[in-house]
Prior knowledge:
By secondary structure, this protein is of the alpha/beta class. It contains 9 helices and 12 strands. The strands form 3 sheets. It has a 5-stranded mixed sheet. The two termini are 37 Å apart.
Amino acid sequence: MKLTINEALKVSPFSETRLLTKPNKKQQIIQDICIVDNFEIENSMEDGVFVWTTARVLCNVEQAKKFLLQLHKKNVTGLAVKLGDYWECMPQSLIDLANYLDFPLLELNDRIPFSDQVQCLAMAAENKRVTWLHEKQTLQSQLRYFSVNGRKTSEYMELAGECIDHPFAILSCTGEVYYHNTSYTTENIIQKWHGFVNDLTMDDQDRLIYRIELANRQACLLIECEEMANKEEETVFYQTAQMISHYVAKWRDENEQELPAIMKWQQSLLF
């Protein structure tokens, strides 16, 4: 679905839902919505699921707390509850527990069917996806133009970063960092990934690193992500990597000795 809870709360009629806890620090993305009618949490439930239920299912406060703890362990996005005639209001102790866990707890509007709310969020997510794709296509067109017209490396890499939308580095097969705007130092990048061949790995901070070959394996693109990219994001990664690959190859052909110096100059601006 690819919406945050804050984004979802701006979409009518889901906007009539009340967020009962403090704003979630992580702002986790809603991947899917799961409407549950019992306390059994399936092992197959994936990260990012937004769970909806009713006070009838929660039954009493102690069971509701146990249920919320189960959801938190499953790393779901949040819990939304229809109170109906079972509870007059959400128990304060349940709200306090959710705040302690930094876990979003919401109260759904009783008058609006689940189906209407799911449908409005699905439409909002699709609109967001289409807008995102259009923006990426526009940026990639600009990137092609920059490549052909020989714009400055700094401008090219800045635009490439907008396409990728994540910190990235370019590492040569000889262990030179041509460019990077990641959270790592140059030395870290060389130590961790020079000679590394896997397409996807996880660092010691639980960040994902996508690795894509560039310029006939003369270099590689390393993309730093907080979470797994979806298929459309991966497609953008590979499309942009192909453009960067042509750019790198072009510079190598025109002046093999000049490319590292030019790109290292850009890298020096980051420190």
